[in-house]
Amino acid sequence: MTVLGIDPGLANTGWGVVEYTGQHYRPVSFGVIKTSTEFELADRIHAIACEVGRLADRFPVEAVAIEDIFFAKNVSSSISVAKVIGSITHEMKTRKLDVQYVTPLQVKMAITGIGRADKNQVQQMVAILLKMDKIPRPDHAADALADCITYAVLNSTKNRMKGGLLR
What we know:
By secondary structure, the chain is α/β, with parallel strands linked by helices. Helix content is about 50%, strand content about 20%. It has 5 helices and 5 strands; from the N terminus they run βββαβαβααα. α1 packs parallel to α2 (about 75-95), α3 (about 105-110) packs across α4 (about 120-130) and α4 (about 120-130) packs across α5. It starts with a strand and ends in a 5-residue tail after the last helix.
C-alpha cells in the first residue's frame, strides 16, 4: 500500500510518500510545501491543498495520514493549521482516498514505542525504519514520513483485530 503523509503547517507543510507491505517500508519521495506571508491566508491554504492534491495524483497513493493538532501554544496559528487540515481533507476525500488523522502521541508510540520520545528520537527511528543513511530533511518532511509509518502501524493493528487475532 502507498501512503501520503502530511505534517500540516501554514508556512511549511511537510509531505512524504511511503510504500509498505507488512512491516517493510520503502520511502518513495518527500519534501515541503512552502507559502509566503505576502499572500492572503485563503490563497495560502488553497495553494497548499492544491499542491497536496497534485502529489496524490502524481504518486499512486491509496491513503493519507494527516498529523492532527494535539496541543496548541499559539491559538491563532492552530486555527490556521486546522484550516489547512480541513482543506487538505477536502482535496483527498474528493479523490475518494482514505484519510486518517494521527496524533503526535500515536506517532511517537508507532515509531519509537515511547510516548514521551522527543522529535530527534522519532526522526532517527524514521531513518532506521526507512533504511535511510541519514535523517530526512527538512524536519517537516521527516515528520510526514513518520505519519506514513504510523498509518501503516495503525492499519496493521486494525486489520489484525478484524481478523480475530487480538480477541
